[in-house]
Amino acid sequence: MATLIILIVFIMFLGAIFTGGYNKKYLQRMQDNWLWEWITTVDHKRIGILYMLGGGFFFAVGGLEALLMRLQLMFPDNQLVVGDIYNQLLSMHGTTMIFLVSMPVLLGLMNFAVPLQIGARDVAFPFVNSLGVWLFLFGGLLVNLSWLFGGAPDAGWTSYATLSLNEFSPGPGVNYYVLGLQIAGLGTLMSGINFLVTIINMRAPGMTYLRMPLFTWTTFVTSALILFAFPPLTAGLFMLMFDRLFDTHFFTLAGGGNLTLWQHIFWIFGHPEVYIIVLPAFGIFSEVISTFSKKRLFGYNSMVFATVLIGFLAFMVWVHHMFTVGLGPIANTVFAIATMAIAVPTGIKVFNWLFTMWGGRIRFTTAMLFASGFIVVFVMGGVTGVQLAVVPADLQFHDTYFVVAHFHYVMIGGTILGFFAGLYYWWPKMFGTLLNEKLGKAHFWLFFLGQHLTFFPQHFLGLMGMPRRVYTYMSGRNLELLNLLSTIGALLMTAGILVFLYNLVQTLRMGKEAGPDPWNGRTLEWALPSPAPHYNFAQTPRVRGLDPWWLDKYEGDGKLQAAEPLGPIHMPSPAYLPFVMSLGFFVSGFGFVFHSWRVGALGLLVVFACMYIRSFEEDPGYHIEPEELKGVES
Amino acid sequence: MKVEDQQATVAGLPAEPEKATLEGKNKILGFWFFMAAETTLFATMFGMYLALRGSTMGGPTPQELFQLPLVATSTLVLLTSSLTSVLGIMGMHENDANKMLKWFAITILLGAIFLGLEVYEFIEYAHEGHTITSSAFGSSFYLLLGTHGSHVLFGVLWILGLIIQGRQQGITVHNAPKFYVASLYWHFIDLVWIFIFTVVYLMGMIH
């Protein structure tokens, strides 16, 4: 408690030092700061950028963790990071990459692009949107602070009981995991609800469901998956938290608990999670491939159908992570067949992308390179996925590097390549400049070849019996060469990321002006000036078909059709409460990690106080008058 | 939205003030999705309870513990509160702020009585050796019922705040969706209680 007060005073002190002492104007000066503008922003484009900044930071952290593990495995009997530290690295790498990288960077692109694509001025709940991003950032921060205070979680990203209980994971590590993920998960759930309502209620006139761009469609289905997948995780984390903090017996065998329960609950969340982080990427690829092939997306309706079907089947296959538990041949067979069935809609998608390119005028920009590279990588990951769905084979593959190779192929191939494709594609709309294409291509080739070199050999390592999550291997088992190659691949990927970072810095310093429509785009966002103005559309557009901007350019007068006359635009006011509320959750989480109930309760009190303030607050927003709209181009 | 604002000020409140603005519509739709998420949360917890309720580890079993008359009373109280919240919403639709606030006040009063009965019940159980740490049955029982109970508590505090707002402002297109959504929430925790009554108490008596 005392520590907390000291910390708060210290932060106010720092604020004073950096801005020039305490005086009457202290608060006023704080509010004029650019940082304050970002903290209180409710603009979906800025929130999207915040998501990507946060995700990017954690990507660096998680990437370094992976690099350390690969360096350890470079040679047999290596002594770089061994034992417990290695366990912490592998747990944090998985947790970070899934929860704090894949989802946030995609949520960032969704936040940025979806309201623009459906012709809306903002999301349905700007306040909740801001709350979502701050909860994610504080939750992620909490998980990662474990490195500094008390040791990181070391029970794997799946945190199977009993390994994750106090008996085998003493120390606060798993507490950080449990509390941090609950906070971040709450934020994700809110974003999911926000997107669902935004897409249902805020579409521009004429934008029927079957005229929505595919990225909007995948965002829609992803949000539905978030809605039904995250509550089970919350419930499971709640039980694990009670077992660790309050000595309950959900998973402890001595008290009559049930180990399989955690596995079921975790994978009922965990499998839909896989689709949560890959479906938005599918949407990005659909946009990119269609734009750079200069063709309408092939089989749009079947794409939508396949997306919905994948979303549905995502909840029907969780037991394929548990084939070795021994649930019996009937259960295993049912889930194996359901798993293989997912290959059908996924196959439909792959063929549709190929047929979109077929006969198109393909421009291999960096975004398009990432998209076409994805098809190769993802199909390979999909093939090993079907192999893993075969139960007798899975009994051999389970917990070997074959599995590691499989899910890195789908996750890097899907999510990470998808994010890069989306970033190169939408960057001009975010910042008004073009990312350097030459550096972009270097980035792509280094990263793409690096990822194959890292993970292709791991298939064979797995088939030779090398188990995952083990920090070393012996020499003389034919594992040396492939491990060495794998580590060299990881270094190549790192080089690719460094080129990418250099590209970002160069572009931000002196990027080439992009203009409103650098790619000859098809969807509504390309009708706006770059960067997009904070009110998005001066006049709400009227949509006449799929790819509305393309229609207006080539079958209309080249201007975006408006659905309303110019008038005052209503905007939501900035809000500081989301930040304070998330801070409350963060403080509370920190308290509970260290069994300090008083700090825990204090944080929650802040949260509830904020909710009350928010409920009583009148938020009329403000209006932008037509005279203030500069550069009305639409 | 502007047209709707004018309607609200010039011609009094529209017939369904909670759906008069886009904000209100968004709020209601978003809340339905939130309840879908909550349903999944409770479904997971029911699954947990069904998996663990047999593990009493020598402690008291459900048949020995549960007092149906007490639980039936709680059920009756909570179900009645659902009815009173409907009457509150009817008051809103009649543009009668006093009627609305009165029925919502009765609703949270009944909610508070329910909470009191539940606390009394838990204290009784604790005396008989049935606590959250006594066995997996105890852990799952208290987590499921505690989650529901804290939802009731949250609802009581929330609606209390809304009543204060209603007394200050009357019914507006701005606060009508809040009352409407709160009544949805109240029905939802009632529905969960019906499942708890069936799955935990009634099924607990036969097994």
UniProtKB/TrEMBL annotation, chain A:
Q: From the UniProt record, which GO molecular function terms apply?
A: cytochrome-c oxidase activity; heme binding; metal ion binding
The EC number of this protein is: 7.1.1.9
Say if the entry is tagged with keyword Electron transport.
yes
Q: Name one Pfam family in it.
A: COX1
Record GO cellular component, one term: plasma membrane
Residues annotated as transmembrane: 6-23, 49-69, 89-114, 126-149, 176-202, 214-241, 261-285, 297-318, 330-355, 367-390, 402-427, 481-502, 575-593, 599-616
The reply to whether Transmembrane figures as a keyword in the UniProt entry is: yes
Please give, as recorded in its UniProt entry, the membrane topology of this protein.
Multi-pass membrane protein
Where does the record place it? Cell membrane
> Which keywords does UniProt give here?
Cell membrane, Copper, Electron transport, Heme, Iron, Membrane, Metal-binding, Respiratory chain, Translocase, Transmembrane, Transmembrane helix, Transport
**Domain Cytochrome oxidase subunit I profile as annotated: residue spans:** 30-544
Q: Which GO terms describe its biological process?
A: electron transport coupled proton transport; oxidative phosphorylation; respiratory electron transport chain
Which reactions does this protein catalyse? 4 Fe(II)-[cytochrome c] + O2 + 8 H(+)(in) = 4 Fe(III)-[cytochrome c] + 2 H2O + 4 H(+)(out)
Superkingdom as given in the UniProt entry: Bacteria
* Function description: Cytochrome c oxidase is the component of the respiratory chain that catalyzes the reduction of oxygen to water. Subunits 1-3 form the functional core of the enzyme complex. CO I is the catalytic subunit of the enzyme. Electrons originating in cytochrome c are transferred via the copper A center of subunit 2 and heme A of subunit 1 to the bimetallic center formed by heme A3 and copper B.
Name assigned to this protein:
Cytochrome c oxidase subunit 1
Q: Which organism is it from?
A: Melghirimyces thermohalophilus
TrEMBL record, chain B:
Q: Does the keyword Cell membrane apply?
A: yes
Any idea which GO molecular function terms this record carries?
Answer: cytochrome-c oxidase activity
Could you tell me which SUPFAM superfamilies the record lists for this protein? Cytochrome c oxidase subunit III-like
Q: What is its main location?
A: membrane
Record's keyword terms, sorted: Cell membrane, Membrane, Transmembrane, Transmembrane helix
Q: Which family does it belong to?
A: Belongs to the cytochrome c oxidase subunit 3 family.
- Protein's recorded name: Cytochrome c oxidase subunit 3
Could you tell me which species this protein originates from?
Melghirimyces thermohalophilus
